Amino acid sequence: DRVKYVIAGGRTEAVLAQQEIAMDHKILYLGISMSSPPNKPILKDYERYKYYFNAPNCISGHYVLHLAAVVYPALRDVREALGLDRIRVAYLAEKAVWADYIFKLLEQALPKLGCDIVGEWRPSHLTTDVSAELAAIKAARAHAIVDIFSAEGGTTVSRQWGEVKFPAALTGVNVPAQRKKHWDVTGGLCNYESYFDWQFPIAITDKTKPYYEAFAKKYDGEFATWTANTAYDGIYAVSYTHLRAHE
Fold first, then answer.
1. Bridge partner list, 5
2. How many whole angstroms separate alpha carbon 67 and alpha carbon 136?
3. Residue 34: pLDDT above 80?
4. What percent of the chain lies above the pLDDT cut of 70?
5. Helix, strand or coil for residue 147?
């Protein structure tokens, strides 16, 4: 189809495969959502992989700061509220490569923050039932759960955690929770879940607030997620490059 640019990419497993095909054809690949592994081939063979560009929120960079800004304070507050020197933390994440990297980060960081990881539970990203996982986590006497989900499994976790009134704080990366409809689809059972979002109508530059408002107007008030933002930036960069080329 004479494609010159690809603006896409979600999940490490998919991007690694897409990347090879794009590089075979020397197509510029502007990633919008992936972790650090797709960057690594560039260091080994720049001439082949120089057509690949990653989004700024890759796990090896800014993403770690976003995660830390939510997870670490939440776990600290739980520890202080319970009056404990150390708390027990469960890792509940979708079975995907990107979530593996986050677990490695948490394994290194949490023990230094007064947290002991009691176990790792890894259901499908599309799971519709995590009752067995929650029962096992409860049996492990976890004080908090770090959940990592990019797909509808995150909605399941929020809803069932609320249904059973699980006696452990829920914090982490829950992409479905970043959507406006999350409260409605969980029937409000997500209340007190702690997570981060990517964008609010703040004038960081003269473009950020108008972009947010235009997105909400076009998509019935829905919030713009990071993939919308990075895709927009990619298209903006390509369009700007073409305009300059024809000046």
1. 28
2. 25
3. no
4. 92
5. strand
What is the Cβ-side half-sphere exposure of residue 30, based on CA atoms within 13 angstroms?
17
Q: Where are the beta strands (DSSP E) in the chain?
A: 5-8, 28-31, 52-53, 87-93, 115-121, 144-149, 169-174, 194-195
Cα–Cα distance for residue pair 204/212, rounded to 1 Å:
11
Residue whose structure tokens are 């997500």: 190
Please return the burial class of 149, using the count of CB atoms within 10 Å of its CB with bins 0-12, 13-18 and 19+.
buried
Distance CA 153, CA 116 (A): 25
Q: Say whether 60 sits in a helix, a strand or coil.
A: coil
By DSSP bridging, strand 52-53 and strand 28-31 are parallel
**Tokens in use for 25?**
């054809």
pLDDT digits (tens, 9 = 90+) for 62-79: 566 667 777 889 999 999
CA 103, chain centre distance (Å): 13
Under 8 Å CB-to-CB from 15, ≥6 apart: which residues?
Answer: 9, 31, 34, 38
pLDDT in tens, 9-22: 877 888 888 999 99
> Is residue 214 pLDDT above 70, yes or no?
yes
Q: How many CB atoms lie within 10 A of CB 131?
A: 11
Strand order from edge to edge, sheet including 194-195: 115-121, 87-93, 144-149, 169-174, 194-195
pTM: 0.84
Helix (H, G, I), strand (E, B) or coil at 52: strand
**Which residue type sits at 200?**
F
Q: State the residue for tokens 């929650």.
A: 134
Question: What b/e readout covers 69-97, taking b as 16+ CB neighbours within 10 angstroms?
Answer: ebbbebbeebbeeeeeeebbbbbbbbebe
